[in-house]
Amino acid sequence: MSNSVKITYDRKEYEFPLIEGSEKEKAIDIKTLRAQTGLITYDPGYKNTGSCTSEITYLNGEEGILHHRGYSIEELCAKASFLEVAFLLIFGDMPTQKELDLLNDEIRKDSLVDEDIKLILKSFPKSAHPMGILASLTSGLIAFNPSTVNIKSEESMREAIIMLMAKFPILCSWTHRKVKGLPLNYANTSLSYVENIAHMLFKLPHQDYTPSPIVVDALNKLLILHADHEQNCSTSTVRIVGSSEAGLFASVSAGVSALWGRLHGGANQGVIEMLKAIKRDGGDTKKFMARAKDKNDSFRLMGFGHRVYKNFDPRARIIKKAADEVLGELGINDPILKIANDLEEEALSDSYFTDRKLYPNVDFYSGIIYRALGIPTEMFTVMFALGRVPGWIAQWAEMRRNKEPIGRPRQIYTGKTKRSI
Ligand code: ACO
Q: Which of 146, 258, 350, 407 is the most exposed place for a label (fewest CB within 10 A)?
């Protein structure tokens, strides 16, 4: 098989090398395209563009495969803790017990934020969207930890990574408690990473709280399922912001903003709002299916479709099973679960959806679990961000270690040509 691609343009032939990934994916290396031919490529939404090489996540959308550093998402969800997966993503291998203990110790020591962060939090109205609060607080952290900006060594990189892993759950919990009007909680460092997340989210001042194993197990799975997903919108944002040598926290704050949108992380909130609207409307799923298919209606079936998965989203299978288990174990009979099941069944046998390869994505069922855990709908995307932080960190660190150039796409100018006033 050839290891190059020839392009003929203006009666001249140019040759470009093919590069191959470890899972045999091929790409045309067009780094010298403009220099050689004067041409650039045009690819809105980057549907055919590889922006980097990466060793973190392998995703095969046609076959529904998701691997992190070679381990399948199914195996990670069944056997690993969220912190182990975070270590794997960021540092490249599953941690030994000693490495995990060290990471835990370092995180526990850093599990505090400056009290003045509360002043920033206080200035937001309760009606503010949690993702806006979270992006601001993440950015605000920079002012209190300026050493994290100018990273020149592996040690200072590790320091910034630990700080973010330790402090981000506090920011998420404080955002949640602000919206709910609850007093702010501090970390309980005698708990595991995920137990502590549950503690900070749910512990009330007038009651004892011991995180239930069902809740911790569900949170663990949800966080792992969201931990990384290669070059999606928010991760590409983190990499491109970081490529200007903006610090880790600034890059992740930008990632939070990118995740906010309803076509990306905001879809989990969109799903529950859609299911509630269908219920309020009398529960006629067929009516909403017709709207989703109507080109004159902007309504889309939230939680359906994916830029890369064109067969099924392997995360959706795991999460559907987890939703059934959690609701069963907590004894919750949520009527919107029935609406979700009906919609899924109808879509899977409707040629509009099957022809376009639109299947349920991870967020179709995640909101149902968050709801069962008592997390308000507008906090769902914050929970997604909490899970995605190790992925953002790993991608940012890889970009820095690879000394990637500043991200700067080109354009085809279609405006007015030179004219005078
Ligand atoms: N409901 C109805 N029709 C849809 C849907 C949907 N959810 N998704 C795509 N389509 C249709 C489009 O209208 C288009 O139809 P056409 O070819 O007749 O014009 C076709 O399917 C292709 O759609 P695109 O938007 O071009 O697909 P793309 O790959 O660019 O978008 C996306 C993927 C944004 C996820 C889209 O499927 C969508 O909007 N889904 C709903 C939002 C959602 O669930 N987002 C979460 C993604 S997963 C995540 O971020 C974790």
A: 146
Cα-trace Rg, the chain:
23
* pLDDT tens-place string over residues 111-144: 999 999 999 999 999 899 999 999 999 999 999 9
Smallest CA separation from ligand 1 atom 2, residue: 300
State the CB neighbour count (10 A cutoff) for residue 388.
Answer: 26
Q: What residue owns the CA closest to ligand 1's atom 50?
A: 264
Percentages helix, strand, coil for the chain (3-state, rounded to 5) are: 55, 5, 40
Indicate which residues carry an active-site annotation.
306, 363
For residue range 25-44, list pLDDT tens digits in order. 999 999 999 999 999 999 99
Number of other residues whose CB lies within 10 A of the CB of residue 15: 10
Instruction: Quote the ligand 1 centre to 306 CA distance (angstroms).
Output: 6
Beta-carbon contacts of residue 208 (< 8 Å; ≥ 6 apart): none
Q: Is 27 helix (H, G, I), strand (E, B) or coil?
A: strand
The verdict on pTM exceeding 0.90 is yes
Residue with tokens 């195996």: 75
- Dihedral angle computed from the Cα positions of residues 98, 102, 103 and 109, in that order, rounded to the nearest 10 degrees: 160
CA 191 to chain centre: 25
The answer to whether residues 343 and 289 touch, using CB atoms and an 8 Å cutoff, is yes
CA distances from 389 to 88, 231, 392 (A): 13, 14, 5
Backbone angles phi, psi at 232, to 5 degrees: -75, -175
Residue among 130, 96, 321, 133 nearest 222 (CA): 321
